[in-house]
Amino acid sequence: MRPSDVQRLTVGETADRYVEMVRAKRSTGALASGTAEVYARDVVTFAELAGRERVLDDLTGEDVDAVLLRFARKPDGRRSPAAAVPLPADGRPSQSAASQARFRRSVSAFFRHALVAGWVQLDPMGAVTLRPRHRGGLRAERRALTVEQAEGLLGAAHDLVETAPAARGRHDQRTELRDGLIVLLLAAVGPRVSELTRANAEDFFVNAGTRYWRIFGKGGRTRDVPLPAPVAEVLDAYLEQGRRLLDRGREPKALLLSWRGRRLARGDVQAVIDRVLARVEPGRRRGVTPHGLRHTTATHLLAAATDMDAVRRVLGHADLSTLGRYRDELPGELEAAMRVHPLLGPVEGRAQRGG
User: d(Cα 2, Cα 69) in Å, to the nearest integer?
Assistant: First the structure.
């Protein structure tokens, strides 16, 4: 199905259609009565937790992660109000592990149908980072890396690029330039992992001396994002040297290739991040996913007082309100903001002199 064929339906509309479909299958015997009702109930719950008015195709793996967490902490509806156990202060789940696993299966079935029905371009379940073994004790924590952690990761990526000429191993299997480029693009531009793996070499162009990446995003929307000079330099080095080594003639357009010459997949990107992370000194090392790096980009751009609409366009969101989900509080951020007040100018030194 082409991106232009995707129907821009809301979560509520698609959930209602899905419920009608599973109940029709129950009436014909294609689905057991109990199974159909579980699917219907869970998808209605999913719509409530995700937001019925949101467009289904705009939901990402991170959105589904958030819904899975909300469901895990949702009070068990089978208990009477008098007997209901309040949500623990530490945010641990109210739902049993079996209920959480069942809900995830129902949501997966819903998105498989949505993909076939043309309600979504891609199944976001492929980008979900929470697994059943995680949700039992998982708490909502910051996703964005701190400045120190981000600098450690980017420094390791640059070091990897610089060691590429002297790297050991087969000449046609060296991936140092590619791996460094992946981390730099994710951290500097914050693309969705699907946008990164779908990128072609021809999507990068120069305009007025600036390197741009034409990103093909959700809903058939495109955006041209300028690359910071250090990232553009690594991109050029990879296109001139690194990609040429990996090219086997199988994927003439793909930007990112495996050492077998095939287009890189989502899972490969996480493996690359983990390899680069292993080069970061332990004090600045923290595990992160591609979604976490997207979150890091948004958080630090917004913390630097970058125009919100510019951040929205970099990330490829249709609505400014969506940015709230990508915003983490940074240590010392409020104090730093008030030291350079837009109405008063730098006030810290003045206060010290006055004291």
Answer: 32
E-strand spans in the chain?
204-207, 210-216, 222-226, 340-341, 345-346
Facing residues of 214 across strands? 224
| Residues 62-119 pLDDT 10s | 899 989 998 988 875 543 333 333 344 444 557 777 788 889 999 999 999 999 999 9
Whole-structure pTM value: 0.57
Rounded to whole angstroms, the Cα distance separating 125 from 354 reads: 58
Q: How far is CA 298 from each of CA 59, 155, 188, 317, 326, rounded to the nearest angstrom?
A: 17, 19, 9, 11, 6
Q: Which two tokens stand for residue 156?
A: 């390791």
User: Residue 141 and residue 143: Cα distance in Å, rounded?
Assistant: 6
Rg (CA), the chain: 23
46/352 Cα distance (integer angstroms)? 54
3-state secondary structure of 6: coil
- Mean pLDDT of the region 262-290: 91
Active-site residue set: 192, 218, 291, 294, 317, 326
pLDDT of 303 > 90? The answer is no
Q: How far apart are CA 350 and CA 353, in angstroms?
A: 5
| Amino acid in position 202 | E
